[in-house]
């Protein structure tokens, strides 16, 4: 069997398996007549758009089980809810049974008294104060997550575990706890499972616990050794394993704008641990909500954020996602979506990137009312229901796989080189 034939069989496998899963979905396909599938593709505005490196790494993983493919999705409440990113994540992991590369970066949102993803649960002790980059009055040092939880308790702790066996489990043998290393009076300990080695990375700012075998739950304690006014700052965790696979990380903060993430002083340092191959930008619904929206500032903020990411991975691919259709104050179709969309097209052109037009896929201006009537959007005419976010995740994944299919066809005579992680 030639290389070309093998790739064609592989392409057919990808699409057949995805279509079968869609047909077996409990939701009837007749419910989806409000989705414009003809608009469901990635827009590329330059011949040299930089998705080839990402697709090459994905091909090496799926065909030869080489390396890790790392995807990062960034946004506001749509992303913090984690239903949309988790649906894309699960679709990627279903391409093959053995490509679970770990959960990646997470934040224990419950400590910050904000919505926590349902694919893992958090319990904690001690008094914590939370600070979000989206709240103007909050002053703190933030990492990639955009949320910081602080405590001055003598003893505090938190636990992470999966809710039930039906959910995808992400086993790990390395835990990185990101925190302020200047809090010398606090001791960070892994109380479960047992670590065989502990490392401290002072350049990036984390304590790493290396385990003898993989686990899917953990417990961390923070103990104050002596009186101190300096708080312990928790920025998040990275749950990692040594298995080749997909690592899909989402960073979402309720109410976040592009300017919110520029407040993240430790963003670049902590991004070195995530080191994404593909970044899916979903920031903009909060930028363009009010009449004071400034497209020029919006674009400049994105430029700065992209420069930060390129300083970590110059070969990273970028995918801009347009704002979904929404209503201003639940009454008026928000026409600022068109200005934001024009800005994203400019950014995609400028940075040799892709753009996925969620606004058009939804059906254009006023379409969210149809989504609401079908039970896929909430009454606020901004957010979606769980099945709405799941549908968006499925449609986005389908668009990505279409482009991957095109990549395979165009590169069928080019042997894949071994790509490092």
Question: What is the structure about, briefly put?
Answer:
This protein has helices spanning 3-23, 52-64, 77-80, 83-93, 258-261, 267-274, 295-312, 336-350, 358-362, 368-373, 386-410; strands spanning 42-44, 68-75, 104-106, 121-125, 129-132, 147-151, 155-161, 172-179, 186-192, 195-201, 206-215, 218-224, 232-240, 245-252, 278-282, 317-321, 327-328, 332-333, 354-356.
Give the tags.
disordered C terminus; 421 residues; Jelly Rolls; Rossmann fold; 19 strands; 11 helices; alpha+beta; 6-stranded mixed sheet; 7-stranded antiparallel sheet; globular
Description:
This protein has 421 residues and is of the alpha+beta class. It folds into two domains: 25-101 and 244-414, SGNH hydrolase (Rossmann fold, 3-Layer(aba) Sandwich); 104-242, Jelly Rolls (Sandwich). It is built from eleven helices and 19 strands. Strands 3, 5, 6, 8, 10, 11 and 13 form a seven-stranded antiparallel β-sheet that branches. Strands 1-19-16-15-2-14 form a six-stranded mixed β-sheet, with helices on both faces. It has a four-stranded antiparallel β-sheet with strand order 4-7-12-9, with no helix packed on it. The longest helix has 25 residues, at 386-410.
